[in-house]
Every structure is written in C-alpha cells, then in structure tokens.
Amino acid sequence: MLQGKNAIVTGASRGIGRAIALELAKQGANVAVNYAGSETKAQAVVEEIEQLGVKAFKVQADVANESSVKDMVKQVINEFGSLDILVNNAGITRDNLLMRMKEEEFDQVINTNLKGVFVCTKAVTRHMMKQRNGKIVNVASIVGVSGNPGQANYVAAKAGVIGLTKSTAKELATRNIYVNAVAPGFISTDMTDELTDEQREGMLSMIPLEKLGDPEDVAKVVRFLASDDSNYITGQTIHVDGGMVM
Ligand code: NAD
User: Fold this and answer.
1) Residue 166 counted as an annotated binding residue
2) Consecutive 10-residue runs of the chain (246 residues): their mean pLDDT?
3) Which residues are catalytic?
4) Would you say 137 and 87 are in contact if contact means Cβ atoms under 8 Å apart?
5) pLDDT score of 89
6) Cα separations (Å) of 51 from 54, 206, 220?
C-alpha cells in the first residue's frame, strides 16, 4: 500500500506514534522516527521497523521549534531522497481546572500540540508542493470536538488542529497535497495509564463499543489516510473513538 513512500512520524518513540510508524512500515514505507525524549526508545522502534525490511532512522526535534524541525526535514530528505507522508502525532497534556491552570501549562500544550502541527506542516510543504504530491495526517482528539473539563489547553489545541487541517487542506489541494486528521477517543497508552479506576469506569460508560481503543486502531486509519486509497478525501477528521462522539 505504501511501497517506496517516505514518511516522518512525530513523537514516534512510544504509544500511538510508535504504532503509526510500525503500521506505515508494514505497508512498505521508509520511516523517520521523530522523538524529543528517550533516544533508547526511538532506537528500539527503528530496529523494529528495519526488521520489516524497510529503511528507518531516528531524528531528534522539538516539533514546536522551527529551526529544529527544518533541520529534521532536511535530514529526512537527504536520507530518503524525498518525503511523501507527514504524520503530526507528537502531543502532551498538562491537565488542570481552568481556575488553577497556569499560563505556562496553557502555553506548553498550545505550543506542542497546535504550533507543532503548524511548524511541521510548513516545513514539509515546499518540498511536497514541488513534487506535487503529499499526505499529511494530523492526530487531533475527540475532545477537540466535544470539550472536556480540566483540559481547556488541550481541547483548545486539538480543536485548533481540526481547523488547521481544514484550512491547509483547502490551501494545498491544488498541489495534490492531502491533509486529514484522526480524532482518537480513549486509547490505551502511557497517557491513559495514569487514569484512576474511577476515571476509567466513567470513561467506559461513555463509549458505545464499551472498550478503550488500541494504538493500532488509530494507526490503521492513519495508514488509510496516508495511502492512495483515500485520494478523494481531504480536510476531514475521522473519529476513532468507539462511537463516543456522534
Ligand atoms: P504519549 O505520551 O505516549 O506519546 C506522545 C509522544 O509525543 C511521546 O513520544 C513524546 O516524547 C512526544 N512528544 C511530546 N512533545 C514533543 C515535542 N515537543 N516534540 C517531539 N515529540 C514530542 O501519548 P499518546 O497517547 O501516544 O498520544 C499521541 C497523540 O495522540 C497525541 O497527539 C495525543 O494528544 C493524541 N491522543 C491520544 C489519546 C489517548 O487516549 N492516548 C486520545 C486522543 C488523542
């Protein structure tokens, strides 16, 4: 499905990003594994991908830092020769009730989760415009559609990502660059492992399919949006949430 394609997945050393990187590689794509934190984990993902018979390398960059993202994109194009797919997955949470939320908690989340998508998209766009071909997939969140108490910063960022997806899709469509998003619901990762039993129970009661999702559930939809099978879809946000928000 993705034979010969070259991809960057941001925040790919664990969780949903790792699953996306592996899923794209299983379909034949070469993958640059972006990371900000643990080099060891990123290296482990690279080795797993190489075992699938495609190329991979790790590349450190803070997605919110324009110069480090520009370097990352340059490095990927040097290494792979071209760049066809960008998956904007990196994200953080700094949850707090509005009245307790500090300015820096708001700024950190907006910077990584929203500005990061803008910076990475801008950095790949010139190259994709020249080759008149590209797939950009943004990882939003279902709370960007529904809202969530205690997550004003995160929800604002993810709602922003959904808007950014629509705007860039319209702007880049004539150049054959597709921009779509996935909005995961509650997915079992380090991010959701921190929940208490009570929070988990409350969550399950809101999900018609009565289960949390797996990172692979999200990765398979990203793979579809990164492939030619989705060539009449742009500007959309696909909910991967067990039916939680309809
Ligand atoms: P995670 O914390 O396991 O992974 C996030 C990754 O992003 C980590 O590898 C982290 O190092 C990386 N990262 C953070 N800041 C970065 C930066 N500035 N530059 C580069 N990388 C950075 O979380 P996850 O659950 O795998 O989440 C992945 C994405 O899915 C996030 O965008 C998150 O908001 C979104 N999401 C997750 C869920 C869920 O239930 N887990 C639900 C909806 C949306």
Assistant:
1) no
2) 97 97 98 96 98 98 98 98 98 97 98 98 97 98 97 98 99 98 93 82 93 97 98 98 96
3) 154
4) yes
5) 98
6) 8, 39, 19
Report which protein residue has its CA nearest ligand 1's atom 44: 141
Tell me the ipTM for this assembly: 0.99
Which tokens go with 148? 């969530």
**61 marked as binding residue:** no
Cα angle for residues 56, 238, 158 (degrees, 5° grid):
80
Count CB neighbours of 245 within 10 A. Answer: 15
For tokens 């998508």, what's the residue?
117
Ligand 1 pocket: which of 191, 217, 241 to mutate (most atoms within 8 A of CB): 191
74 appears as a binding residue in the annotation = no
> Cα of 83 to ligand 1 centre, how many Å?
22
